[in-house]
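Hi C.,

You asked whether I'd gotten around to modeling the 348-residue construct. I have! Everything is below, sequence then structure, no commentary in between.
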Amino acid sequence: MESLIMNTQPLINTASALMADHKGILAMDESNPTCNKRFAALGIPQTEDARRDYREMIVTTPNLGECISGAILYDETIRQKTQEGTSFLNVLIDSGIIPGIKVDAGTQDLAGHPGEKTTERLDGLRERLAEYSQMGARFAKWRAVIGIGEGIPSRSCLEGTAHTLACYAALCQEAGLVPIVEPEVLMTGEHTLERCLHVTREVLRNVFIQLNCQRVLLEGMLLKPSMVLPGLSCPTQVSVEEVADATVNCLLQTVPAAVPGVAFLSGGQSARLASARLNAMNVRFKSRAPWALAFSFARAIQQPALEIWRGDELNVKAAQEALLHRARCNVAARRGIYTEDTEGSGTI
């Protein structure tokens, strides 16, 4: 059946804008505990002020809007302001960056299924989405995680995850927000590339079955999947070309052409490897992929800048340059022109 959303054009326009001009989406939606953990590893104070300073460093990076189309914020972040008193949300808008918001509450153990997770916070989501929309957010994100191991993922995990993601997406579109649907197949484990391909294919098939059941407008959503990769502990690692082939062929088998874009998560990959793999996909498949092959990276864009910044105001400029450099590298990867020379030059 057709979507029951009354005014679909704004959703379509926003989804298209997020994928336009070879740009990508910056995921700066780390929860406070996750942000604090990364700060602690670098000796940065785990305080609200430190988190605010870090996020201000990111959103005020000069020329960031040349590479980044949208930024996913956390509830604390969307309410914060710069030292001069301008809301981060307005700083982004003034830079030509569309603001978005993470709306899940993280993962919990899936009852009756040891080793598997479920993502929570559908309760009250309609009201929270209305508030975020009123604040100025134009899209949202919900992350689900699927582990690979002996006997997992289970059918219950696959179907439950897909149903939750679809319910979230329908509520987003009802509120006028573009949903980013993020089913992350985790990299941890000893599984092979072939096993990850099989699991990812099943995950995406279930997700799109449920999106159809919930009457989600495909033209007004984005998919944020993980790349098809061997597990980090797998003794057989593969080339960037093999990752590109496995990933995009999987998408071609499962993702409808109506979806305007696929914005990959980095999922713990190194910054350079994430860029190289995205580049290979665009080199090998861009001419026949029905959707944009883009990026929605967090650590793969932020980590080099965080390691330079380390909570010191004197390091802000250098950290911002590192952040912009990584964003430019990923724009080059979207264009299929990323090379080691791109890393060295800092330009595209």
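If it helps when you're writing up: The chain has one domain: 9-345.

Thanks,
B.
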